[in-house]
Design goal:
eight-stranded antiparallel barrel, 19% helix, single chain, alpha+beta, 4 domains, Nuclear Transport Factor 2, Chain: A
């Protein structure tokens, strides 16, 4: 017999091939199994002429047996074709859906544009009407969102910042606005709701506002504090809604000089009102003797008659180191020579600050204006009244009684009817005591 594996001659009783060493029984079983598989996979028809016929086990004796080639049966792309067809169908549906969505988007955008344009026109038509109604309701009020404790009342002005929303339905308009209200002490920003009657032309009537929310901040500090006996406070406002008032710690310190130490009063604003917090004492932060902020500024006439004028005396600057004061003078007087009312106008006059007596400080003015009108007077920082100037008539070189002089054609006449004429005469060389200082004729604005 032959080896099923390599085809070599072997004895019938042999268990293994002497040539390849294969197990004869195992190799025979494998060969029969392989033959059965090949037979089941073979085509039913006879091979056509010219086809190559695989040799059988009996004829393949001289060559080693090779593993039979197993061919996968050809399959038709039926599933792929169906999927592709379904994909085409889905693509067509998707295109239809996308086209419909595009139409919806375009139509929606057009509608949105029309509605936006209509709303914008509504805002443009109603905004000036709302601003006018806001002004009518709130302008001129001296109390709105903040109390007037510690401050002098002043009139509010309103401004409409934005119409934040508005709608009209069945002849009624509703919406909200953003607005600002301010006066000399406070500034408030607020959201207000409104209702109104509206016609087809966006004309509003019966407009009513209600405050939805507001925020108030101070734009200036306090003006007075009755409990601490503070008036005309020159308060300093800080960023954290606080203000301070600095006053001389020594109550006998005149208003026109700097105290060595100051009492600092601190106040805070809580969104609705000012409150006093505490008082502390601090060393003065200046070495200057004269209180610049207290002295500089405009002084108004204390009398109200036909000679009253605007800004008659303004102290524009002080040079404490040089002991100089700079002043503008615009004083009315009656010129007896011409019989006309006139006014002295002196700009940036430089005078020396001098001690006129014990605890009395002031400066002399002796000059003429551009029209040739002379003025001679002594200005005293009144030690008895804070922020007040008292005036003496000055003296000339040739006479011990003088006033305001009008010069015309080299002639001089005494203009007796004037503010200065109401002051006492101050002869040269006389020392003034605080008790001698006349009633203040000018008060700090």
């Amino acid at each position: 017999m032959r080896c099923p594996k390599c085809g070599s001659e072997v004895k019938s009783e042999a268990k293994f091939c002497p040539q390849c060493g294969a197990n004869i029984a195992q190799a025979s079983a494998e060969r029969e199994e392989t033959a059965a598989v090949s037979e089941s996979n073979a085509p039913a028809s006879e091979p056509a002429m010219g086809d190559t016929v695989e040799p059988s086990a009996e004829t393949a004796t001289s060559e080693p047996e090779t593993e039979p080639s197993v061919h996968e049966p050809a399959t038709e792309p039926v599933a792929d074709s169906a999927a592709e067809s379904e994909s085409v169908k889905l693509s067509k549906k998707a295109k239809i859906i996308l086209a419909a969505m595009a139409v919806i988007v375009i139509v929606g955008a057009g509608v949105a544009y029309v509605l936006s344009a209509q709303h914008q026109q509504l805002v443009m038509d109603t905004e000036p009407q709302l601003a006018e109604a806001l002004s009518e309701q709130y302008d001129g009020e001296d109390t709105l969102f903040a109390k007037n404790d510690y401050v002098e009342p002043s009139e509010y002005e309103s401004s409409l910042d934005e119409v934040s929303s508005i709608s009209v339905s069945n002849g009624k308009a509703t919406g909200a606005i953003q607005a600002t209200f301010d006066n000399e002490s406070f500034e408030s920003t607020a959201t207000l709701n409104f209702t109104a009657d509206a016609d087809d032309s966006n004309n509003l009537s019966n407009i009513e506002f209600t405050v939805d929310s507001q925020t108030t901040t101070p734009i200036a500090g306090i003006d007075y504090d009755e409990e601490n006996d503070l008036e005309n406070c020159d308060s300093e406002l800080t960023d954290d809604n606080e203000c301070t008032v600095s006053m001389p710690a020594d109550p006998d310190t005149p208003w026109y000089v700097n105290s060595k130490s100051n009492d600092v009063y601190t106040y805070s604003f809580d969104g609705k009102k000012w409150s006093f917090d505490y008082v502390s004492t601090e060393d003065s932060d200046t070495d200057d003797y004269f209180n610049y902020d207290a002295i500089t500024g405009t002084y108004q006439c204390t009398r109200d008659d036909k000679y009253a004028c605007d800004d008659p005396i303004t102290i524009t600057d002080i040079d404490s180191g040089a002991g100089k004061v700079y002043v503008d003078i615009n004083l009315p007087f009656h010129d007896e020579y011409t019989g006309e009312d006139s006014e002295l106008n002196v700009t940036d006059y430089e005078a020396s600050i001098t001690w006129l007596g014990d605890d009395v400080v002031g400066f002399n003015v002796g000059t003429k204006d551009d029209d040739g009108n002379f003025i001679f007077m002594v200005v005293v920082f009144n030690p008895n009244v804070d922020g007040a100037l008292s005036i003496y008539r000055g003296t000339t070189q040739d006479t011990d009684v003088a006033g305001i002089w009008g010069h015309r054609d080299s002639k001089s006449v005494n203009a007796t009817d004037s503010y200065i004429e109401q002051a006492g005469i101050f002869p040269l060389g006389r020392s003034i005591a605080p008790g001698d200082v006349p009633y203040p004729m000018f008060a700090h604005d």
